């Protein structure tokens, strides 16, 4: 059967199970958009190529399946670099297809030409420039394989316009043969036994669960391990929901803006069981002072992460779920043979920290609207399995702190790259992937202004997400740093609460919109928003600009120097 390269590309995507593509057409990719008309694949027309990438990320976060985005050459390709880098940092499986000028004119500075493969090489697991239409099925198969195996991540296929037009003899490869790409599948029995032995002697152990738990679909295995041993669990920003927040063994989020107990438990531990976590600087604080008395068991699918920041006592390269399942067997066997240390004294310390340093704020009845109060009301009035997509900054930290994530794959955020503008398009992608779920975008006014135009996409495609703007009229996290570390010299952080008018802007984009200024209006407005299911909803919450995120570990400081912030007894 003869197909054009473009037809072969679309057919290959169909055979890989692609249900939806987020994209925006242009000259170089036009040949591929033509057969898309006759395809079973749903195409969602974005308003900016960055939105296509973040929507694909949100889809992948929520479903575990690779997100697919397709854009044209030149500026379109450069616009999607940010989502590629974001996905690379957070290990999100993406397949991005970019158009390219005809192969015959590459290198002549043709209209909308850029070296897409060269530009994206540092922010993809791999990328391909197709030079022969006969290679398309094989390359598409390889792309999906690379994106979804080992440590997941983004890949890119660059297809020149003339290659898309040329004919090829259709085939579909039976397998993938990549001699240089061999993700680790085996688990070392010896290292599993060594890990169980370390666990059996620890008096202050902590399970340090990272995003790799979710990538490996290991949430159930993690819960089994924790409940079997009684060891407390912290979940990093990328692992929220991997272990239920309401579980007695859960300490919540550690890190620069984690809760005091999670931060301090890591610091005081004598054993860290790091599962799919990478000892990120936002978790460790000053590395030399991080968990100084702890031995380390480090499990990660990526061998490059082992020893990168902290040298482990037991290094295990492997899929988190498989490793944890083997660890459960080893621990069960060990528990039958000998008595493990009693963790009651350790839990007594932990409960004292939880009692003395809870997350705390005060919402006065007639006072300014606190952002934490808004998030707690959103949480309490929405279904338990609501998917929350956040932007980056103060609102991101408050959302992670105050929402209760009891289900995996319900927290969608930009962790490693910290991409402002992530929330709205990511929420759209998550809703496309999980149309049965309520999806709230929790955004800041600074973030919202970067990608709000994608609400036009949501309205046009009938994707009914809900957006809560925590509008404090500032670039809030930057303002907080300037207040605390730059002697209150507020340089270029004021945004204005009224410019733009968020309600009018949202309505112009086809949304229903509300504005909330006072605490008593929060709950009724959220209930109205949750009752609307046929179009996007935006709520402009006018929040207190003076509110800061606590706890906080100052940049470069030790976690032992954490600033707990206000406490119920009025202390600091």
TrEMBL record:
Q: Does the keyword GTP-binding apply?
A: no
State the CDD domains in the record. Answer: TPP_AHAS (cd02015), TPP_PYR_POX_like (cd07035)
Q: Could you tell me the EC number(s) of this protein?
A: 2.2.1.6
What is an example of a GO molecular function annotated in this UniProt entry?
A: flavin adenine dinucleotide binding
Keyword check for Transferase, yes or no. Answer: yes
Report domain Thiamine pyrophosphate enzyme N-terminal TPP-binding positions: 4-118
Q: Which cofactor does it need?
A: thiamine diphosphate; Mg(2+)
Q: Which terms are listed as keywords in the entry? A: Amino-acid biosynthesis, Branched-chain amino acid biosynthesis, FAD, Flavoprotein, Magnesium, Metal-binding, Thiamine pyrophosphate, Transferase
Give the pathway annotation.
Amino-acid biosynthesis; L-valine biosynthesis; L-valine from pyruvate: step 1/4; Amino-acid biosynthesis; L-isoleucine biosynthesis; L-isoleucine from 2-oxobutanoate: step 1/4
Which Gene Ontology cellular component terms are annotated?
acetolactate synthase complex
Q: Which Pfam families match?
A: TPP_enzyme_C, TPP_enzyme_M, TPP_enzyme_N
Query: Domain Thiamine pyrophosphate enzyme TPP-binding: where?
Result: 391-541
**Protein family:** Belongs to the TPP enzyme family.
Spell out the PANTHER family in the cross-references.
Answer: ACETOLACTATE SYNTHASE CATALYTIC SUBUNIT, MITOCHONDRIAL, THIAMINE PYROPHOSPHATE ENZYMES
Recorded protein name is acetolactate synthase
Q: Name the source organism.
A: freshwater metagenome
Q: What is the lineage of its organism?
A: unclassified sequences, metagenomes, ecological metagenomes
